[in-house]
Amino acid sequence: MIQDEKKAKHTINRDKSVISVRGLKKSFEGYDVLTGVDFDLYQGENLVVLGRSGSGKSVLIKIIAGLLKADEGSVNVLGKDVTRLSQKELDQLRLKIGFSFQNSALYDSFSVRENLEFPLRRHYSHLTNSEVKKQVEFFLDAVGLSQAINQMPSELSGGQKKRIGIARTLILKPEIMLYDEPTAGLDPITCIDINNLINEVQTRFHTSSIIITHDLSCAKATGDRMLMLLEGQFRYEGSFQEVFRHTEDERVKQFYDYNFVD
């Protein structure tokens, strides 16, 4: 059942795009995944990208983060054309983009503390041990897991791993957050907790976010705007209600019904 949660008020600047994509195409071995994607992410917005598994959602955000190269089209992130950046320039831009991976991507041999320390020590080697300690404690507190600081990833639940992964991403203070299936594999109660955390990140840290999901509970709870990816293009855009009023399109109806919504 979809939770009808209300998001806290926050400011979206629709006059400023932090991501602008035009004519994006990507194929793999002759299979067309993205066939002409156009969209903008506005400053302060949570944008949900909906689509079935294999529809190209994760490919899209990997291209935005520079992890994959587009075949055609332009990808402008924070005023930079990702397709034209050198590796050094791309590495600098990535510091402003937080990527929350579906599997959390924690280092199994590191404690929670060490997982959060790692990006700080790698990118901000000038920080003192005391400063690193304060940052780790602050961001663990921000995701409600201060007590887990000395635990190993194997000792954490799926929801806790998601939270730690988000904390490790936030510790570099990105302007943009990319969430790849943030509620995948979680029970319904934990899903609500993660949805609330995504909204808290948006309001507290003033992030602009793309949330990739096929979970309609997540979409409705976190999204200021929805885009539905069908056959390689965005076919429908708007609020949750606006997108899913297109029940005349069997693809939309099936997607809605698959989520077991009354």
- How many beta-strand segments? 10
The poorly predicted ranges are: none
Q: Could you state the order of secondary-structure elements as H and E?
A: EEEHEEHEHHHEHEHEEHH
Q: Structural class of the secondary elements? A: alpha/beta
Number of helices: 9
CATH architecture of the largest domain: 3-Layer(aba) Sandwich
Taken from the alpha-carbon principal axes, the silhouette is globular
Terminal-residue CA separation: 7 Å
Give structural notes.
The strands form 2 sheets. The chain has a 6-stranded mixed sheet, with helices on both faces. A 4-stranded antiparallel sheet has the order 2-1-4-5, with helices on one face. Helices cover 35% and strands 26% of the residues. It has 262 residues and is an alpha/beta fold. The chain folds into 2 domains: 12-96 and 174-190 and 213-262, P-loop containing nucleotide triphosphate hydrolases (Rossmann fold, 3-Layer(aba) Sandwich), CATH 3.40.50; 98-173, no CATH class. It has helices at 57-64, 87-94, 112-123, 129-142, 158-170, 188-205, 216-222, 240-243, 250-258, and strands at 13-28, 31-43, 46-50, 72-77, 80-81, 97-100, 176-180, 208-213, 225-230, 233-238.
Topology:
Blueprint: E1 13-28, E2 31-43, E3 46-50, H1 57-64, E4 72-77, E5 80-81, H2 87-94, E6 97-100, H3 112-123, H4 129-142, H5 158-170, E7 176-180, H6 188-205, E8 208-213, H7 216-222, E9 225-230, E10 233-238, H8 240-243, H9 250-258
Parallel strand pairs: 3-8, 3-9, 6-7, 7-8
Antiparallel strand pairs: 1-2, 1-4, 4-5, 9-10
Helix pairs in contact: 3-4, 3-5, 4-5, 6-7
Short description:
The protein has 262 residues and is of the alpha/beta class. It has helices at 57-64, 87-94, 112-123, 129-142, 158-170, 188-205, 216-222, 240-243, 250-258, and strands spanning 13-28, 31-43, 46-50, 72-77, 80-81, 97-100, 176-180, 208-213, 225-230, 233-238.
